[in-house]
């Protein structure tokens, strides 16, 4: 004997509120990288304070990038000095040449 149960669903009321999703490793890395090469200050909320992301943060600090935090998932990256931008330009050029030779 099979029993069939059916339900009828009607629209409910309006749903409101806030949802905070946990930080994401790849997005936290990208936010640090983009913030480090951006002009002006960058504020990051929802930064994942995992070992990998903290290592990336320390690496940028070691290269001279002024970074506040992390504190409760918040990081502030301050305006980058011109010598760092020059360094990034040189790294980009080296990576381009490396890619060109790897293709050959």
Describe what this molecule looks like in 3D.
By secondary structure, this protein is of the alpha+beta class. The chain has a single domain (25-103), classed as Enolpyruvate transferase domain (UDP-n-acetylglucosamine1-carboxyvinyl-transferase, Chain), CATH 3.65.10.10. 45% of the residues lie in helices and 12% in strands. The protein is built from three helices and three strands; from the N terminus they run αβαββα. A three-stranded antiparallel β-sheet has the order 1-3-2, with helices on one face. Helix 1 packs parallel to helix 2 (51-62). The radius of gyration is 23 Å and the shape is elongated.
Short description, anyone?
With 104 residues, the chain is α+β, with helices and mostly antiparallel strands.
Strand arrangement, major sheet: 1-3-2
Overall tally of domains? 1
Write down the secondary-structure element order: HEHEEH
CATH topology: UDP-n-acetylglucosamine1-carboxyvinyl-transferase, Chain
| Overall mean pLDDT | 82
Helical content class: 40-55%
Feature tags:
104 residues, UDP-n-acetylglucosamine1-carboxyvinyl-transferase, Chain, single chain, 3-stranded antiparallel β-sheet
Task: List the SSEs and their pairings.
Blueprint lengths: L24 H13 L4 E4 L5 H12 L4 E5 L2 E4 L4 H22 L1
Antiparallel strand pairs: 1-3, 2-3
Helix pairs in contact: 1-2
